[in-house]
Amino acid sequence: MLRIGLTGGMGAGKSTVARILTELGAVLVDSDVIAREVVAPGTEGLAALVAAFSDDILAADGSLDRPALAAKAFATDEARATLNGITHPLVGKRTAELIAAAPADGIVVQDIPLLVENGLGPFMNLVLVVMADTETRVHRLETFRGIDRDDALARIQAQATDEQRRAAGDVLLDNSGAPGDLEPVVRELWERRLVPFEANLRAGARAPRGAVRLVEPDPTWAAQARRVIARLAVACGDKARRIDHIGSTAVAGLPAKDVLDIQITVADLEVADELRESLRAIGFPRLDHITTDDPKPGTDPARWVKRIHANADPGRAVNVHVRVDGWPGQRFALAFVEWLRADAAARAEYLEIKRKAEANAAGLTGPAAIEAYLAVKTPWFEQVYPRVLAATGQDAASE
Ligand code: ADP
């Protein structure tokens, strides 16, 4: 089962995207609907609210009078905490029930208006953010929802900013155009990314990769890596000592293969092996055929052993290296990025090698392409290894 978080500011078009995804076959879990359901007449939720806030919060027909509740519950921080203490666990429980009831091969879309505000992105396999500029949203809220302009603006300003949403979104869906513009975009996302992502996740398979190709540096690589790291952190819990963005995409301005390299630092190889299932469960299956980095000359090869995972999402290639704290490969990965960030000549030298490696892999795909690429890169890494350690103040002898 794939878990997709869907969010966006009021009037951006979440419900519209949710409808399209549902038509394509997604299982929709709508947090606004759940929030109403758990306090409907006859529920324990409504009874608890009455016990806390008195029956002044009931309308004549016995249903919840929302404005009356709001007047009481938003009056003080304590009252607000009481309200949340009643509703949040019920919403959480109902959400979990609905997700558990979805089929094993389901693509569950959780429509959560406050996903960004509540930091829920790391618990999703992917976050979709529907974007539209403020003026467009205000106009829609006035036209279609009868909310007056000042009220619409005030509500929009109380929510996350566009910048915060952009940082949280793996996929940004622009809905500032005509109503029909979104449908083909969402359909393509569904067919090309969500459906294969779900199938890969369920099978414990990585997504296939195309030819080895260097691309111009993407200024969003760092933010993309932060989202991946946040998800990995949830899966690893305290088994990860640290999780870092490493490799070329961690160096601003450097052309690179469009693959994010992430390093999870663990205490020992047993812990690395314990992470196997938890990483697979969030779409990072282990690649069993690779068990080590290339040991550098003069070091103990046993301390270059690592685990490597690749990801199931065909829309964003990620390699996750699980390395042991203090072993040379773990230290080198961090030092290499530090060296490149600090030294323009080092970046130029590395780029030249990457270009040669890319040329060597031209026309090849899959493992053959990687092999041809590495045939150029590996010898360079051997000669650069002592220089990186020296430049970053590390002692090769301690390896
Ligand atoms: P949200 O769920 O994010 O608050 P909705 O999907 O309900 O937003 O959209 C808000 C309103 O704007 C709805 O009445 C919807 O029909 C309308 N709407 C959505 N997308 C567009 C669009 N591209 N152009 C014009 N109106 C739109």
Automatic annotation (TrEMBL):
Which keywords appear in this protein's UniProt record, sorted alphabetically?
Answer: ATP-binding, Coenzyme A biosynthesis, Cytoplasm, Kinase, Nucleotide-binding, Transferase
Q: Which InterPro entries match?
A: Depp_CoAkinase, GrpB/CoaE, NT_sf, P-loop_NTPase
Give the pathway: Cofactor biosynthesis; coenzyme A biosynthesis; CoA from (R)-pantothenate: step 5/5
Q: Which GO terms describe its biological process?
A: coenzyme A biosynthetic process
Protein's name in the database: Dephospho-CoA kinase
Top EC category? transferase
* UniProt-annotated binding residues for ATP: 11-16
Reaction equations catalysed = 3'-dephospho-CoA + ATP = ADP + CoA + H(+)
The subcellular location is:
Cytoplasm
Q: What is its main location?
A: cytoplasm
The answer to whether UniProt assigns keyword ATP-binding to this entry is: yes
User: Which organism does this sequence originate in?
Assistant: Nocardia yunnanensis
UniProt-listed Enzyme Commission number(s):
2.7.1.24
Q: What is the role of this chain?
A: Catalyzes the phosphorylation of the 3'-hydroxyl group of dephosphocoenzyme A to form coenzyme A.
**GO MF annotations in UniProt:** ATP binding; dephospho-CoA kinase activity
Q: Which NCBIfam families match?
A: dephospho-CoA kinase, PRK03333.1
What family is this?
A: In the C-terminal section; belongs to the UPF0157 (GrpB) family. In the N-terminal section; belongs to the CoaE family.
